[in-house]
Amino acid sequence: MKNAKLTVNEIILSIQGEGTRAGQPCVLVRLTGCNLDCSWCDTHHARTEGDEMSIDDILTRVSQLSCPLVELTGGEPLGQENATELLKAFCDAGFQTLLETNGSMDISKIDQRVVRIVDFKCPDSGESDKIRWQNVEHLRQSDEVKFVIASQQDYDFARQTTQQHSLCDKCTVIFSPVGGRVNPADLAKWILRDHLTVRMGLQLHKIIWPDQDRGV
Length: 216
Hints:
24% helix, nine-stranded mixed β-sheet, single chain, globular
C-alpha cells in the first residue's frame, strides 16, 4: 500500500498550535479536500490545491523534517480513501501520530495507536447537523474533542453536548474561541462560571504568525 496515492496540500514543520500538545514542534501533513464548509474556515486553500503523492513519498518527506510528532490534517483528511493507510504507515515508522478530523467521518477504523482529535461543529459553523454522533462511543482517553466557539449560542451547545455525552469522562475536551468572534476572557468566564472541567485552547500558531494562513 505504500504506493497508494493521496492528494497533499502541504507538508511543513511547524509548532503545534492547538490541543494538549500545543507548543511542540510537529510535522503537519495537510491533505486536500473537505466535505464541510464552516463559516469560520481558515484553510480554504486546502479545499482544492494539492499534489498527488504516494505514501512512500510522504513518509520520505516527513522523515527528512526530523521530528517525532506528526499530524494528519486538512481539509478533512478522512475524505481521502488512503488516509487510514497513511496513518498506519506513520505509526509503523515510529512517529507519534495525531489525526485532526471534522467529526463527520467514521473514526472507528483508525489505527488504535493514533490520537484522534475530533471536532464537534457548533451551530455558528453552519455544519452542526453533520456531526457523526456514533463517534462518541469510539472515543478513548488518549483522544481529544474540540469545540470551536463563535458565540454564546455555540458555548451553550458545547456545554450541553459535553455534559449530555459525559465527554470529559471519555477524553480531553477543549473549548477554543474563534478569533475576532469571541473574546477569550469571556469564554474563560463562562467556563469558570459553569464549573466545567474542560480545557480552554487558543490557536498558538496565530499568535506566533498572526499574518500567515499558509505554511504554519
